[in-house]
Amino acid sequence: MYSRITPRTRVVFIANPNNPTGTMVKRGEMEWFLDNVGGDVLVVIDEAYFEYVEDPDYPDTLLYQNRDKSILTVRTFSKIYGLAGLRLGYGAGDPEIISAMHRARHPFNTSSIAQEAAIAALDDHEHVKRSRDVNREGLRYLKDELGKLGINHTPTYTNFILIDLGKNPMPLYNALLREGVIVRPLGGYGLKTHLRVTVGLPEENERFVRAMKKVTGK
Questions:
Q1: Residue 79 pLDDT > 90, yes or no?
Q2: One domain for residues 186 and 209
Q3: Which residues contact 50 (CB under 8 A, 6 or more apart)?
Q4: Contact predicate 65/31, CB 8 Å
Q5: CA distances from residue 165 to 10, 57, 138, 196, 216 in whole angstroms, order as listed
Q6: Which pLDDT band, with edges at 50, 70 and 90, does 38 fall under?
Q7: What is the pLDDT of residue 11?
Q8: Distance between CA atoms of 192 and 1, rounded to whole angstroms?
């Protein structure tokens, strides 16, 4: 990404962890990038899934806000907090960047109810811990079962797992759909042989595995 920056570049977006691969940019890589990118380039780091990360090498970019760089960290309440229907998130950055965003945003862009829910969510540490625990166990189960089925997957730091079928995934996608299981094809991302599977509750994960075994005949 750094090698593609030109004098015309104004904004760079980094999703960390990344969607839809689930992969992570580690601390050394992120710090190298921020040290080398010019201050006239705004680096927007999307940390929508950061609460799921348990790797100590994860770079919390809120800690980098005082660098002499243009950094905007954006996060959401749609993932681990479970408030996707409220469409609420937040950003942290230099006051000049935030001021420019305020001038461009729509008026009344969030409701008072959504804001109250977000404030309450920030204090609900037990919910976050429980969600992280359920996700960790779900990932372990799915990785084990996918391994038994001989299906490759990408190491993930999120609440979903990217599987590679090595062929057109749409027949499997449609077969799962007929079983009442919805996964996500990723052709639009250039991942022509992949599907993304979200971690659910234990019974939902087990239903997915049963459906996979049925439609693959394994």
A1: yes
A2: yes
A3: 16, 17, 58, 60, 75
A4: no
A5: 37, 30, 20, 11, 11
A6: confident
A7: 96
A8: 22
**What is the per-residue pLDDT for 68?**
78
Query: Could you tell me the CATH number of the domain that includes residue 193?
Result: 3.90.1150.10
| Over residues 184-206, mean pLDDT | 97
Element (H, E) at 207: helix 202-216
- Measure the CA–CA gap between 84 and 66, rounded to whole angstroms: 30
Q: Are 44 and 72 in contact (CB under 8 A)?
A: yes
66: pLDDT confidence band, cut at 50, 70 and 90?
A: confident
How many domains, the chain? 2
* DSSP code at position 1: -
Task: Please provide residue 92's backbone torsions phi and psi, each rounded to the nearest 5 degrees.
Answer: -135, 130
| 218 — pLDDT class (breaks 50, 70, 90) | confident
- Cα of 27 vs its chain's centroid, Å: 17
Same domain, 112 and 175: no
